[in-house]
Amino acid sequence: AQLPINYPAPTVEDVFNFEEDKQRVETICKKLAHVEVEVRDAALAEIPRYLQGICETYVKEQCPDADVELMLQKLAMGLFYCFWHSDKPLVQHECAHKIALLMNSVSNASMQRIIIESIFRILSREWGRIDRYRLDKYMSLVRKLVYQMLMLIKRHYTEARKQLKAAATASNAAAEETDNAATEGELTEAERIDSEEQAALAIPFISGLTTFFHKTLLVEARSVGLTMHMMDVILDELIRSDVDVALFVRISEMLPLFAMSRGDFVEKKVLDNFIGPIVSGVLDARRVHTIATSPETIKDAERKKSRRATPADALTTELAERNYSDENDQICIRLATSCKLLSVEPGTRHNVRPMLSESQMLIEQHLAVKLNPKQFRRLTHRDMRRRVTKELQEAEEAADKTMKFRKLVKDERRDDKKKARKLVSRDQNGIGKKKGKKESEEKKKNGKAKKHIVIDDSDAAGHEQPAKKKKDIDPAAARALRKKISSDKNISEKVKEEVVKLAQKEERRQAKSHRLEDGESESKISAKGNSQNSKRHKYGKLSYKDIVDMEKEETPVWRKKK
Fold first, then answer.
1. At what angle do helices 245-254 and 189-201 cross, to 10 degrees?
2. How far apart are the C-alpha atoms of 508 and 526, rounded to whole Å?
3. pLDDT band (50, 70, 90) for residue 104
4. Nearest 5°: phi and psi at 466?
């Protein structure tokens, strides 16, 4: 693929000043987010030299990682918007390739790791804002980033293996010269290779990336979409990068298997796009195809065409294919072990454990079919589910036993604390001491009733005196109590009188309204009421009930109707 003919060439500035890094980062980011393609390409071509200068200053002056990470995250944000504005497939492909190669522009492993973390952190944060028209090009960018990251990991791993091998060779040569090599306890070739692999996998670059993915990227809820796409492409990029067995398994544990153990619907992507192709034989076929299409193989084939093919060439090809087949078997065995360990790890989600156990059984079934195809009986779906159900029942029983044991321990600790509190309280109150025979006899005679002890002002020495009986009440207190009771009675009578007055008033109002309805005038009614009130004074201060009773017994003249 070629870029358009009129595509402008970028210009690169040779000036670098680390003291003005903040202003320069902002300037570069503004250029990266520019709408003109010439400005964006010039800024993108300027970044490798800028990163090299930062790396040199980072190594010499030992700058803190936090400042460098902040600066590189700003730069990654500018790269995100630079790719956002890129248009046309060829331009997008070229821009994605340049962004992915930025991690190779520096030679320091720590700086390379920080660049990778910054780019993936910004992608994780902004992934939800990408619209459906730009999603495809960002997915291609992620694929290129994953491939370049795997190639970097492979390069550092290979260098570490070479250094360890050289150190081991030097130590063996020194031991042979001094004739101090011990015949017993020496490591075999396989053990030595295994130890070298484990030491090479523990280098800071790989361990730092593992920490970043396990504690930051793969556990965040907002990065589920990015994680799913990484699980889609991880197997293809692992096969294309042509890593060895130990590194293949280590990266599988770092990315797809760990993401599967954390759930969030990522486990289905891993089952479909990672475990499925492995157990269906795609891994073997793809690796053989990768070998056949590699540049070295093509050169050998061209060299063989120039001369006549010999049986040795066919034997070499067969041995190479058999070697890769053995490596694939080793990968499957180690992946099955990793799935088994992850299925019982405490941090694994409960609903994902059966999937990991099922993945383990599928990989073991694939190996059994490959090694002994005639003696193998294929497991049905029902048998597989029965095995998984049985394993789940065993796990639940183990969990119940653990909970019961924890509860017993908790109850025992609670009882011990109660006993300790009782002993402390007894020691403080002096209850735990033994009493003499006289005290116990007196207690039996007097019973459990306690004496009431009262100390008067006259008895300043504090001698014991019997308490006063209930009938001995202070006369002043009795008088105050009676006064209070009488006042309460007066208050209740006053309340009753007020209620009676209100009732009388309501009755008069209703009578007046009835009379007005019958047609009597208001002046007539008022004059009649005044005469009734004047005649009512003869009864004196009587209650309303007494007045009503007297009116029933003797009907006065003023009460009779005309």
1. 40
2. 11
3. very high
4. -65, 145
Per the CB < 8 A criterion, the answer to whether 133 and 92 are in contact is no
Phi-psi sector, 11: left (phi>0), alpha (psi -120 to 50), beta: beta
- pTM of the model as a whole: 0.64
* Contact call for residues 255 and 204 (beta carbons, < 8 A): no
Per-residue confidence at 494, pLDDT binned at 50, 70, 90?
Answer: low
How far apart CA 124 and CA 80 sit, in angstroms, is 11
**What pLDDT score was predicted for residue 460?**
42
Mean pLDDT of the chain: 78
Question: What's the pLDDT score for residue 90?
Answer: 92
Dist CA 145 CA 112 (whole Å): 12
Which candidate, 5, 10, 80, places its Cα nearest to that of 39? 10
- From the number of C-beta atoms within 10 Å of its C-beta (0-12, 13-18, 19+), residue 363 rates as buried
Give the three-class secondary structure for 529. helix
- Partners of residue 466 on adjacent β-strands: 453
Round to whole Å and give the CA distance between 119 and 458. 91
Gyration radius (Cα) of the chain, Å: 48
CA–CA distance, 325 with 319 (Å, rounded to integer):
10
Query: Looking at this protein, which amino acid is placed at residue 183?
Result: T
Cα–Cα dist 65/544, whole Å: 98
Q: Give one word for 260, left, alpha or beta, with left for phi > 0 and alpha for psi -120 to 50.
A: alpha
What letter would DSSP give residue 461?
A: T
Cβ within 8 Å of residue 500, ≥6 positions away: 543, 544
Q: Name the pLDDT band for 450 (thresholds 50, 70, 90).
A: very low
The amino acid sitting at 341 is L
Decide: 245 and 331 in contact? Cβ < 8 Å.
Answer: yes
Measured over the CA atoms of residue 243, residue 245, residue 247 and residue 249, the dihedral's sign is: positive
**The pLDDT value given to residue 249:** 95
Helix pair 381-429, 353-371: axis angle to 10 deg: 140
Q: Compute the residue count for the chain.
A: 562
